[in-house]
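REQUEST ID: PR-0412
SUBMITTED BY: lab tech R.K.
PRIORITY: routine
TASK: structure prediction, single protein chain
INPUT:
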Amino acid sequence: MSWFLMTAFGAAAMFCMRFTPPKVDFILVRVAGFSFVGAGLIGAAGWVGGLINGTLGWLFRFINDLSNSALGTGVAWIVAAAIAGLWIGGMLPDKVFSYDPPDWLVIAGLIVPALVAKVPGKAGSAFDTVITAGGQGLTDMVGRLF
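STATUS: complete
OUTPUT:
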């Protein structure tokens, strides 16, 4: 399975939403989200992952340095946890969490696995388990198709 294939699969699912009724959009947005997370999981091991992790590492250090000066503690992991929680909430069925995830949040699935790695403790572990299970599930399904 390649990073490019999973990213293209997610982009194709988002493109198809232009031509489908809302009930199908509900499924396609989740397929796209988990496809982007699958791409993020695959990319985390290659050069793309190195680039993403390096950039996020720099960004986290920068935000933590600023917040240490202003608040006395680092807050970047709170932002990462909020984005991960929002992404998970956006992927839940509408009956559980009625939220139509915006495109930026669905595409952010590419970096959500790297963001979750920055969240400490049990919360980070729980986010990682949920996101990894969803991404690997769709990656396995697409792998069987192609």
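NOTES: The chain has a mean pLDDT of 85.
REVIEWED BY: pending
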